[in-house]
Amino acid sequence: MSDRSSAPGGLALIESLVNTLDIETTADSLGTADNLERFGITEADLPRARELRESLRAALLAHAGHAPHGRVTPLGELLARAPLVVAVDARDGAAALTPADGGPLLSRVAAAVAEALVAGTWTRLKACEAGTCHWAYYDRSPAGRRRWCSMQVCGARAKMRRYRAREA
Ligand SMILES: [Zn+2]
């Protein structure tokens, strides 16, 4: 689906991390061999990676104006533990915030947030309003007011529920 194309730049890392959990079926793919490699983590890192994932989800829900989906460690608290440095390219002077510690997942996420802040894209990464979904998506709508991961799936379901509520 075109409205599920991945987020730009480093936000794609965050989007794919958040979307390793399917809330409706509770299927969690974070611990698969592919994902351990993709996120640069080991089995031992899974509890902290899951904590980070849900803190991110709460921040993405907040971007869309929604309350957190549960009790989570505030994302800022986690990211404060990720050292970033300003790296400057000697050839053209271009500067970027990069992980100071070789880039474990937490630092890569922090760098991705910093990059998105500069690009003005951070608050466009949101989580779907539907309680059975909360899927991460990148809001490409002109006004930036999209509420669902997919109008065809969650948007249609929400409309149907409102319609039924009116009928009752
Ligand atoms: Zn959804």
Description:
The longest helix has 18 residues, at 46-63. It is globular and about 65 Å long. It is α+β, with helices and mostly antiparallel strands and 168 residues long. The chain starts with 10 loop residues before the first helix and ends with a helix. Helix content is 42%, strand content 12%. The protein has a single domain, classed as Orthogonal Bundle (Jann2411-like fold). Residues 128, 130, 133, 135, 148-150, 153-154 line the site of zinc ion (ZN).
In short:
The protein has about 170 residues and is of the alpha+beta class. About 40% of the residues lie in helices and about 10% in strands. A hairpin with a 6-residue loop joins β3 (about 85-90) and β4 (about 95-100).
- Strand runs, count: 6
- State which percent range the strand residues make up: 5-15%
Number of helices: 6
What is the overall shape? globular
Report the CATH topology name.
Jann2411-like fold
Name the helicity range: 40-55%
Spatial strand order of the main sheet: 1-2
Question: How are the elements arranged and paired?
Answer:
Blueprint: H1 11-18, E1 21-22, E2 27-28, H2 33-39, H3 46-63, H4 75-79, E3 84-88, E4 95-99, H5 105-119, E5 125-127, E6 136-138, H6 151-167
Antiparallel strand pairs: 1-2, 3-4, 5-6
Bound molecules: zinc ion.
Residues 128, 130, 133, 135, 148-150, 153-154 line the site of zinc ion.
List keywords for this structure.
6 helices; two-stranded antiparallel sheet; 42% helix; two-stranded antiparallel ribbon; 168 residues; alpha+beta
